[in-house]
Specification:
Helix content is 32%, strand content 21%. The protein is α+β, with helices and mostly antiparallel strands and 595 residues long. It folds into 4 domains: 40 residues; 158 residues, Periplasmic binding protein-like II (D-Maltodextrin-Binding Protein, domain 2, 3-Layer(aba) Sandwich), CATH 3.40.190; 116 residues, Dipeptide-binding Protein, domain 1; 222 residues, Dipeptide-binding Protein, Domain 3 (Dipeptide-binding Protein, domain 3, Roll). It has a 7-stranded mixed β-sheet with strand order 9-10-11-2-12-21-13.
């Protein structure tokens, strides 16, 4: 088909028009690009400087605000203890029994202290204060004591605590079949419940210090009451699920190692939300046991522990650690050199006096590596009845030599003294610890200058607690005794306590004096403080003249912790276990809070 000429012309004109429009559009775009982009491109450097300046200003302002806020923290905020966290203690030893009727060593005693409450406890000044008890009173003679109990105290299984639990605890202690080490202290005492919250103790004779006997843990009658006394020492309650009224509740125990030498335990306790003295601030308490000090120290250095108990001194590796704190707490006890009055040579009072005067106690204390409070007699300086005028004589080597010379103990210069052909040789026994070893060595040198030969034997703690202390198998014993705040020292110096038939036999010097016996008996039976002090004076005078022992210093409790342990009592303690008396107030965590 032939295309119409007219149509062809029209098509060509349309194409030419579109071409012109495209050229015009391209020219216009080029003009606009040149106007809006290429001509303004030169201004980009100025824009870049402007934007960079604003960004820099914002960064500087932000940093300034942060630094200012941090700088003001010191004015408006402070580090303060907060609730929560876990206290991980480490100690050398073995866990065997949480039952307070049997817990005697530091490990068992610590666990028992946290699980079981007692009728009384000690405050930060080591003063006796009520715990499960609400109040107490005694008759005029100090022979009948009536204790009112707190109401609404609950056992960990939510059972109500009553006087039945108190009566059961002490009557069980009195049963020989129970084999409690507390038996000797409770012979002849009658315990009865007046009502659900009142208990009466009737003593065979007056005893002013009796309330100080009420610090052992109370056990639940509703759980243990039907178990024969002879089986109590080994029931699962003691190690699997003990239930008490203390600040912490049993959680678990993990044991590693298959032999006694490799055995380690980890005892975990969680806080008791119903504790009658206030909910503990710490969430959890974990006690880890170790077979020796080297393992204990290593675990602490690896930051596996919050604190460690039982060391004699701070290891050098820990001493240089700025994150650690060391607490040196004086204990209400005395480290003494006990002179066995029954031994062959120490029967002679002149020998005992010479040893006392010839002992430079200040030099001995220098060996300790810490500042210790000195002791000059059988009572502590702050105890009722103490009389400074009855202190032992001060160090005088010349006088000591003269006493031995006059007593017939002769020697050639530098030789050991002899009498009737027998050398003055003493068997010296002490516990094998760094502290006692240093004192023993120094004392051996001092007495050697007097012409006294000393055979020193350092024994492990288990040997000390066994035959040595029970049989008094020594001439001289370096050892520490616990006194507490009350001046009743009957157990340590009355002649009846030296008898081999005595259950405790704590008269370690086997001291026998009718004057001292009478004074000790009179002092413990008087309630009036002034009268008690007067009654003890003859004892102090006799003790000074007879010299049954050489008092040295108050022992200390060393507690090493990771950072500060807020609330810990660092004033005075009776024993290592008593560090836990106010654990409900301890905190191990800190955070910033507003002032």
């Amino acid at each position: 088909m032939m295309i119409n000429k007219k149509i062809k012309l029209r098509f060509r004109r349309t194409i030419r028009r579109h071409k012109r429009d495209a050229i015009e559009a391209a020219d216009n775009a080029e003009q606009q690009l040149d106007k809006l982009f290429f001509r303004r491109l030169a201004r980009l450097e100025n824009v870049r400087r402007f934007v960079t300046g604003w960004i820099t200003l914002i960064i500087v302002l932000t940093i300034s605000v942060v630094l200012q806020v941090r700088g003001l923290d010191g004015y408006y905020q402070k580090l303060a203890p907060i609730d929560g966290g876990i206290l991980r203690e480490g100690a050398v030893g073995t866990f065997t029994n949480a039952n307070p009727l049997y817990a005697v060593n530091n490990i068992d005693g610590s666990v028992s202290k946290l699980l079981f409450s007692s009728l009384f406890t000690h405050d930060a000044n080591n003063v006796l204060v009520p715990d499960l008890a609400d109040k107490w009173e005694s008759d005029d003679k100090g022979q009948v004591f009536t204790v009112s109990l707190r109401k609404n105290v609950k056992w960990h299984d939510n059972t109500l605590f009553t006087s039945a639990d108190v009566v059961y605890t002490y009557k069980t202690i009195q049963k020989p079949d129970a084999k409690s080490p507390l038996l000797a202290s409770w012979q002849g005492v009658d315990i009865s419940a007046i009502d659900d919250f009142t208990v009466q103790f009737s003593l065979p004779s007056p005893l002013a210090a009796f309330p100080y006997s009420l610090i052992n843990g109370i056990v639940p009658e509703h759980i243990l009451g039907k178990i024969p006394a002879s089986q109590l020492r080994s029931v699962p309650f003691n190690t699997v699920n003990p239930i008490g009224t203390g600040p912490f509740v049993w959680s678990s125990v993990e044991v590693s190692g298959t032999t006694k030498e490799s055995r380690n335990e980890q005892i975990a306790l969680k806080r008791n939300p119903n504790y009658h003295l206030g909910v503990p601030k710490i969430d959890k308490y974990v006690l880890r046991t170790f077979k020796d000090e080297s393992e204990l120290i290593k675990a602490y250095e690896n930051k596996e522990l919050t604190s460690i108990v039982g060391l004699d001194k701070v290891p050098d590796s820990i001493n240089s650690d700025t994150t650690s704190n060391s607490y040196n707490v004086p204990m209400d006890g005395i480290v003494m050199v006990f002179l066995n009055n029954s031994s062959e040579f120490l029967k002679d009072v002149h020998v005992r006096q010479a040893l006392s005067i010839g002992t430079d106690r200040s030099e001995l204390i220098k060996q300790l590596g810490f500042t210790a409070l000195t002791v000059d007699g059988p009572l502590l300086k702050h105890q009722l009845g103490n009389d400074n005028s009855k202190n032992q004589q001060v160090y005088n080597l010349e006088e000591a030599n003269k006493i031995l010379d006059n007593a017939g103990w002769s020697r050639s210069e530098g030789d050991i003294r002899q009498k009737d052909g027998k050398p003055l040789l003493l068997r010296f026994v002490s516990q094998n610890s760094a502290e006692y070893a240093a004192i023993s060595q120094s004392l051996q040198k001092q007495w050697r200058s007097l012409g006294v030969d000393v055979d020193v034997k350092l024994r492990p703690e288990e040997d000390m607690q066994g035959d040595i202390l029970t049989r008094h198998d020594y001439d001289v014993l370096l050892y520490g005794i616990s006194l507490g705040i009350d001046p009743d020292v009957f157990a340590y110096w009355h002649s009846s306590q030296a008898d081999i038939r005595s259950t405790s036999r704590l008269n370690l010097s086997e001291y026998k004096s009718k004057i001292a016996d009478k004074a000790l008996e009179a002092g413990r039976t008087r309630i009036e403080p002034v009268l008690r002090a007067v009654k003890y004076k003859p004892f102090l005078q006799a003790w000074k003249e007879d010299t049954p022992a050489i008092p040295l210093y108050q022992p200390r409790f060393l507690y090493i912790t990771r950072s500060e342990l807020t609330g810990f009592n660092s004033r005075r303690l009776n024993s290592a276990v008593d560090r836990l008396n106010n654990i409900q107030s301890w905190t191990v965590l800190q955070d910033r809070v507003l002032k």
